[in-house]
């Protein structure tokens, strides 16, 4: 069964800040990929995708995780592929971590979706719309609060 998990970002949490949110995305992506899943990180736009690619490169050696932008990297891919709405992820991905605010056209491509409910009012409303789309696509839905220092 396909699942979609929405992580709730609390206003007073570290993840409510841009740097804290990026750090959490890096942590979550590493955690999932190290369990053997091939992850697609769906960013808002190309510049954000390139930023995350660079952040992965800047990690200490013990935290390094092979990754590539869509269209780059080895033929069979790396554990993490990073893209944005104007490009298509490779078909070999099981999980998408969606940090784009309104792109859900990929909703039927993945067995598992991880998404976020931000604090900001407009972004929260867009998350509600994505939730409805996932439900319409047959995903089993759940919400959890981020539990990360």
Automatic annotation (TrEMBL):
<dbReference type="GO" id="GO:0003677">
    <property type="term" value="F:DNA binding"/>
</dbReference>
<dbReference type="GO" id="GO:0032298">
    <property type="term" value="P:positive regulation of DNA-templated DNA replication initiation"/>
</dbReference>
<dbReference type="InterPro" id="IPR036768">
    <property type="entry name" value="PolIII_chi_sf"/>
</dbReference>
<dbReference type="GO" id="GO:0006260">
    <property type="term" value="P:DNA replication"/>
</dbReference>
<dbReference type="Pfam" id="PF04364">
    <property type="entry name" value="DNA_pol3_chi"/>
</dbReference>
<keyword id="KW-0808">Transferase</keyword>
<dbReference type="GO" id="GO:0003887">
    <property type="term" value="F:DNA-directed DNA polymerase activity"/>
</dbReference>
<dbReference type="InterPro" id="IPR007459">
    <property type="entry name" value="DNA_pol3_chi"/>
</dbReference>
<protein>
    <submittedName>
        <fullName>DNA polymerase III subunit chi</fullName>
        <ecNumber>2.7.7.7</ecNumber>
    </submittedName>
</protein>
<keyword id="KW-0548">Nucleotidyltransferase</keyword>
């Amino acid at each position: 069964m396909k699942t979609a998990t929405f992580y709730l970002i609390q206003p007073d949490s570290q993840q409510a800040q841009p740097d804290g949110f990026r750090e959490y995305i890096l942590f979550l992506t590493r955690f999932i990929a190290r369990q053997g899943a091939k992850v697609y990180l769906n960013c808002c736009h190309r510049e954000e995708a390139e930023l995350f690619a660079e952040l992965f490169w800047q990690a200490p050696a013990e935290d390094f995780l092979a990754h590539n932008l869509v269209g780059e990297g080895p033929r069979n891919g790396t554990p993490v592929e990073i893209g944005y709405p104007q490009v298509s992820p490779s078909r070999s991905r099981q999980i998408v971590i969606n940090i784009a605010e309104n792109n859900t056209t990929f909703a039927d491509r993945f067995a598992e979706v991880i998404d976020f409910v931000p604090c900001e009012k407009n972004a929260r409303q867009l998350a509600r719309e994505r939730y409805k789309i996932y439900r319409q696509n047959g995903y089993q839905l759940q919400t959890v609060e981020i539990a990360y220092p």
